[in-house]
Amino acid sequence: MSSFLLVVIFLSFSCYGVECGRKLSRQFQKPKHTNEYDCVDIYKQPAFDNLLLKNHKIQMNPSSLPKFKSSNKLSSNRYRSLPLQTKDSCPEGMVPIQRSRINNLTDLKSISKLHLGNIRTSTSGRHVAAFHTKLNKPGIYGARAAIDLYNPAVKMDQVSMALIWVEGGPPAELNSIQFGWAVNPRLYGDNLTRATTYWTADGSQKTGCYNLICPGFIQVHHEYIVGSPYEPLSVTGGKVYVTQPMIYKDPESGNWWLFLDSDKKIGYWPKEILPHLNKAATFVQYGGLTYSSPNGLSPPMGNGHFPTRNIQESCFFAQLQTVNKFNNLVDIEQDSLQKVVDNTRCYDAKHWGNRYGRLAQTFSFGGPGGICGL
């Protein structure tokens, strides 16, 4: 079985109805098997424990894919896929579900609370360095980017992530879907960089869940595992590896699909659980997010370095795009982006525009963390 698709860039420029698995280790160590999973009947995956999906029929294929210019595609002579080989794929009609390392429902709620609240408002212990579209921008039907892959040094009870957010609705009913990578020892039981999804239908007040731990996201691919580790990863000053997620609204079904590398369909968030995204999203954000431990120490973000013009030296997002009402992928205009950094002592983000050619709209982000305050 192949884990999530990775792309290497050779740069030449200067319990919710799902069985809770083993008890979450309180020791900071790599487990023997980093991709333990079960093959589950596609109609018996956790999503179908959600009463809103009682009569939902799985959409195996999107009605269409967003169209994009050939210049937006990664050139095969400069980029190549490096999937991590794991176990055999699941049989047809079944999907791989990662075994949960969460000890019990209390732990699940505690971990989910780390995502509590609207990303546009302040939350104690949470820090962000990102760029987002102007608030309440109408007519956003998806987002895509290339995300640099690193493994920041994160301790237990800390989290460091790099995500794409797609959102809509008023704050108390905020619908948000997210994808990117995360180092989250409490969630995964290790300090690996893992492909991570999150969704909420009410600003994380009562709903909100990572991956397929509780009912929401529907997986259709029988090989790729949501929550699997990325490998290999970027090396500061050396080779750069990226993941290329795309989230977009199916123009016919209204479901929100997750693709990797523009053609690997992983699954979707069904429209029934995201009423404020039924028409379109109004907000997209790209960037880094951290949560501090109870002692107030915040972890590194990105590769732990502040942004530099040499993007081999800092973590970056590239090819920032959104999907318009015509189902076309379009490059984000630089003047339509707004920067958000809540503590420049610990983190920062710098936009480089189209400085790097085929990488299009690009920005670097990150920082060492430390005592960053509230």
TrEMBL record:
Residues 1-20 form the signal peptide. PROSITE patterns: NEPROSIN_PEP_CD. It holds the Pfam family Neprosin_AP. Keywords: Signal. Residues 121-373 form the Neprosin PEP catalytic domain. This is Neprosin PEP catalytic domain-containing protein. It comes from Dipteronia sinensis.
